[in-house]
# Entry
Amino acid sequence: MIDTNDVRRKSVRGVISYAFRTLALQAVGFVATVLLGYYLTPADFGIYFIVTSAVSLLTFLSDVGLAAALVQKKDQPTIDDLRTTFTVQQGLAFVIFGLTIALTPIWRMQKGISGDGLMLLYALGFSFVLASLKTIPSILLERKLEFSKLVFPQIIENVLFYGIAVVLAAQGFGVRSYTYAVLARSIVGVAVIYAIQRWPIGLALSRNSLHSLLKFGAKFQLNDFLARIKDDLFVVVLARFLDPTQMGYVSWAKRWSLFPYQFSVNSIMSVTFPTFSRLQEHPEKLKRAIEKSLYFITLVIFPVLVGLSVLALPMTAIIPKYAKWQPAIPSLYFFCMNVAFAAVSSPLTNTLNAIGKINSTLKLMVMWTILTWTITPIGVYFFSFTGVAVASALIAGTSFITIQMVKKFVKIEAWDQLWRQGVASAVMAGILLLGLSYWERSFVWMFAGGIIGVLSYGIALFVVGRKKLLFELGTLRT
# Structure
C-alpha cells in the first residue's frame, strides 16, 4: 500500500531540491554560455548543434523503453528485471558506438562534420557507452524518490563540462573544447553515481522480465523515436540547406530559450514522472499534483521568458562581441513562444506516460512530427533560418490538445492554473518594452530593467491572483 502523504512530502522536497540545484546548474550554464558565445563563432555553435543532433539520432536504440518501464512499474523490480535491462542497454550502447564510427562516410557529407567535428562525433558516441552504465542506479534512486541524491552527479558533470569547455575555448580550441569536455563529463559521471547508489551489477537475459517491460517500454521508445525524427533528424536534414553559421544562429537562440525550461519544467518533470506513477490509483491526489505542477512551472517560466525576450537585444548591444548574435534575436522570440507552450504541454504528456496512457502520447508525437516536417520547410523557404523558430512556435500552439487528452483520464482544471501568470507576464512585457531604449544604455540600466520587470510581475500577480498564490504556497508547508 502506497503512503500518499509520504509520496507528496518526498515529491515536494524533491522539487525544491531539484529547483535549488538546477538554479545552481543554470547559473553555471548561463555564465558558460555567455562566455562560449564570446569566444566561439556562430559556425562553432552550428557544428556542435549538427553533431549532437546526428549522434542523438542513434540514441533511440540505447534504451527500447526499459528504463521508463522500470520507473513506471507498480511492483518493485526484481534483480532479473534490473540485470536484463542493464544487459540489453549495454549491448545497444556498443551498437550505437559502432554505428557512429561505421557511418563516417555519411557524416563527412554533412556541412561542418569533418576534422574536429568528426572527433566530437566519436566522443559523443563513446559517451553513450558510459551513460548506459548509469541507468540502473538512476532508476533505483527515482523509484525511491531520492531526488536530491540523483541530481548531485548532474551538478558534478555539468560544472566539469562547462568548466573545461570554457577554459579550452578561451585558449582557441574551438570545437575541440566540446570534445574534451564531453569525455571528461562522461567518465566522472559514472564514478560519482556509483559512489552514491550501488547495485548487484551483473548480466542476465530473462525472457519473462523482457516481455513484461517491453509491453510498456516499446511504446515509450517508439514515442522517443518519433521525437528524434521530429527534432534531431530534421536538424541533420536542415544542415544540408543552411550553412554552419546559420545553424549556429538557430542553436544559439534555441539554447538561450531553453534555460528557463531546464530550470522550471525539467526540475519538476524529473520528479513528477515517478511521483505520478506512484499515484495512479489515487485520482484526486493525482489531480492536485498535476495542477500544482502546472501552476508552479508557469509561475516561474512565464516571466523569465518575457524578461529573456525583451532584454536579449540590449545585451547584444552592450557587449561589442555579442553584436554577431543579433541576427538570431528574432529566432529567440519565437523559440521563447515555443517554450511557453511546452511549459504546459510537457508536464501533461509526462502525466499520460506516467499513468500508462502511452498510446495518447504517441498520437500527439505523430501529429507534431508531421507538422514539423511540413511547416518548417515552408518557414525556411520564406524566412531563411528564422523560419525554423517561426514554425516551432506555430506548431507549439497545438500543444493545448494535451489538456483535453489528460482530462479524459484525470479531471484537471488547467486554465485556472495558468491565466493569472499569463496576465501578470503581459503587464511585465508591456512595461519592459516601454523602457527598451533605456535598457540598451549600459549594464546598470539593463539590470535596473530586470528589477523593474520582476517587480511589475510580482505586483500584477498579487493584484490578480493573491489568494491563489498564498493558497498554493501554503500547501507546500503542509
The chain has a mean pLDDT of 81. The radius of gyration is 22 Å. The chain has two domains: 1-240, 242-478.
